[in-house]
Structure formats: C-alpha cells, structure tokens
Design a protein that fits this description.
By secondary structure, the chain is of the alpha+beta class. The chain has helices at residues 14-22, 53-67, 99-115, 140-149, and strands at residues 2-8, 30-32, 39-47, 72-83, 88-97, 128-134, 153-159, 161-170, 173-183. It has one domain (2-183): Cyclic phosphodiesterase (Cyclic Phosphodiesterase, Chain: A). Helix content is 28%, strand content 41%.
Length: 184
C-alpha cells in the first residue's frame, strides 16, 4: 500500500482551493488535483508492505508526541512551484501560518521514519498544498504569470490531528483514505 503522513484541509476549504486552481485557467499541460483531497504532506512513505503498518503507526504516534505540538491555527495562501519557475513540475499554495508547527512535526516524523529504514527526503521541507502538476511546458508562461502576479488566501483552519493516509492510484487520479488519525 502507498502511504504518507499529512494534515488534511477541511472540506469547507475545497471551494477556495478550486478557486485558486481556476486562476490558472485552462493552461495546457496543467493537471489539477482534486480540491476535496487537499492536504499538506508531512512525509511520503511510499509503497509499504502491510506487515509494517503497525510499526509505522507506532512511529508516527511517537513522532507526534515528541514534536509536542498542540492544536494550532494554519493559514494557506500564495502560489509557488517546484522545482523552479524555469522548470515547473508542481504548482502549489503555501502555508502562511503554522509553518513552524508543521516543520517540527515533519522533522520528528522524518527521524522516526528513517529509524524504520525509510529513505529520508532529498530536499528541504516546504509545507504546501499541491494544486496541480505540469505534464509538459505548453502552459508554462501562464503558470509563471499567475504565480508572479496572484497572491490568494485560501483560508484558515485549526489543525487538531496528523493522519496516516493511504493513496490508491486510479486512472482518474489518486484516491485518499485515512488509515489512522493522531490527535495533537
């Protein structure tokens, strides 16, 4: 099963996520994510044998406890891209408030996951919500313009838990389900 650890955006922000995606219009080569599944990934675990699930759940629970982060407010907004405006593969909206708490959670989860033999991330952690993926460069100029000129606020919400999520890839895009929620 394909697993990751995340903070889900509440479903009442889905329309704001969709509105942010609309700012890119019909840019060719841009494939939008489902606003209903919007989340901030704290750690991608990848394909994982089901026999390891209990150990992963324990590790995430310990990491959340070690981070000592209680419930907090998060605000999502702005636009960014990975890896750069010259070569765009992912279009995202960032975390304006709650970055320190999310980074602390990420660091503890990363440490525990590495202890389990899961490869560490090979890039710096940037808390974000993926809005779209660029399949090719046809819409690059549109995306560059919107990222440079627009500065939307998606919304704010209270983060009360971290979730171990399962991602099932389908022809219509990934479908997410919560395996376990860990209260803050």
């Amino acid at each position: 099963m394909r697993l990751f650890v995340a903070i889900d955006l509440p479903t009442d922000l889905a329309s704001a996520v969709a509105a942010a995606q609309e700012q890119f219009g019909g840019a060719p080569g841009l494939r939008r994510t489902d606003p209903e599944g919007a989340h901030v990934t704290l750690k991608f675990l990848g394909e994982t044998d089901e026999s390891r699930l209990e150990g992963i759940e324990s590790a995430v629970e310990e990491a959340v406890d070690d981070a000592a982060v209680g419930p907090f407010e998060a605000t999502i907004g702005g636009f960014g891209v990975f890896p750069s405006l010259d070569y765009i593969s992912v279009v995202w909206t960032g975390v304006r408030q709650g970055t320190a708490e999310m980074t602390r959670l990420h660091e503890q989860i990363e440490r525990r996951a590495t202890d389990l033999g899961i490869d560490p991330e090979d890039h710096a952690f940037t808390p974000h919500v993926t809005l779209a993926r660029m399949d090719d460069a046809r819409g690059k100029e549109t995306v560059q313009r919107v990222v440079r000129e627009a500065d939307p606020t998606i919304g704010s919400f209270r983060v009360e838990d971290v979730r171990l999520k399962r991602s099932e890839l389908t022809p219509d895009g990934p479908e997410y389900s919560t395996v376990t929620a860990f209260p803050l």
